[in-house]
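Listing S7. Sequence submitted for prediction.
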Amino acid sequence: MEESGGRRMKMKVMVAIDESEGSFYALKWVIDNLITAMATVGESSPQNDGMVYLAHVEPKVQNYVYPIGPGGAAFYPTTVVVDSVKKAHEERSAALLARALKICHDKLVKAESIILNGDAREMICEAADQMQIDLLVLGSRGLGTLKRTFLGSVSDYCAHHAKMPILIVKPPQHSRKH
C-alpha cells in the first residue's frame, strides 16, 4: 500500500489463531506470500513493513445452574471450578500464541498477540474493525457442509460480516482430511 508522495504505508494484517493446523498454515502463508512480497516491492525489510496481529478467542466461561436434590435445589459450580477452567483456557491461549509469535520472530516479522473473550466469529470481526485492520486472514478447517451447518464456520461468518477485506487460506489439498 502507498500513501501520497510515494511513501510506503504500513499494512495491518490480523491472523486468527486457534488450535487448528489450518490457522498456523494461514499464518505461514501470510508471512511467506504477503509480508515477504510487500518487503520486496519496497526497499524496506519485512520487519519494518507492517504489523501482524495474532488474535485468539477464548470462549466465555459460563456459570451453569444444575437442578439437584429433592425439590430441585440449585447447584452452582464453585469459584474454584470456574477459575480452574479459566486458567486452563489462558494456558492454552498462551501456548498457541507463543507458537505463532515464534513463527513470526523466526521470519523477522513484527507481531503482537491479542486474546479476546466471547464468540470467535463476532469477536474477530469487532476487534479487526476497532483496530482498523487492513486485511483479516483466517485459516480454513475444511468443515464439510453438515458440520459447517451445525457448528457454524468462523470464516463464513467473517466473510459476510467483516468490514475489511478478508482472506481465507485453505491448506494444500493433500493435507486436508476428507
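Caption to Listing S7: primary sequence and predicted C-alpha cells for the chain studied. The helical segments are 21-41, 79-106, 120-130, 145-151, 154-161. Confidence is low (pLDDT under 50) at residues 1-8, 43-48, 147-151.
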